[in-house]
Amino acid sequence: MQETFYRPDSEVLRTTRTLPAAIYNLAHTLLVQSQTGCVFVPIRTMQYMAVLDAAEWIFVDRERPGLIELAWQSFHPGSRTNLDDPVPFDLVYYDERAALTMQRLIPEFYKALVLLSERRVTGSPPAKILSFSRKH
């Protein structure tokens, strides 16, 4: 399946923010596990779709599918000294409404990531424990 997203011609605002480590780490784990290098995260409580890839994470509104409202870019996980530290990134608004969207996005996005992660884990094949005999 192929999806096409359009970026508006100009940015409304670009600012630097930090993303809680739990969100970055979980999203990064899902990306690494993805066979396509891309993860679609439905944020049902907001009627948004997040699309994650290695370069950026974009967010689109169900009312305007295909049009990027905001993007998270230029993640700098190497700048942290601990895996529990927040990750700096660039937040790009492509629409005036994006500031309002951001007020709810981080906690709702995290809930959607957790749900997606739980569904992927339950659908995976069961683990096997191999026993090796010890030779004396």
Your description of this structure?
The chain has 136 residues and is α+β, with helices and mostly antiparallel strands. It is 28% helix and 26% strand. It contains 2 helices and 6 strands. Strands 1-6-5-4-3-2 form a 6-stranded antiparallel β-sheet. α1 crosses α2. It is globular and about 70 Å long. 20% of the residues are buried. The model has no long low-confidence stretch (mean pLDDT 89).
Euclidean distance between termini CA atoms: 55 Å
- Give helix and strand order, one letter per element, not per position: EHEEEEEH
Determine the structural class based on helices, strands and strand pairing.
Answer: alpha+beta
Mean pLDDT: 89
Low-confidence stretches: none
Return Rg in Å. 18 Å
**General form:** globular
| Number of alpha- plus pi-helical segments | 2
The proportion of residues in beta strands is: 25-35%
Number of strands: 6
**Biggest β-sheet strands, sense, barrel:** 6 strands, antiparallel
**What portion of residues is helical?**
25-40%
With strands numbered from the N-terminus, the spatial order across the biggest sheet is 1-6-5-4-3-2
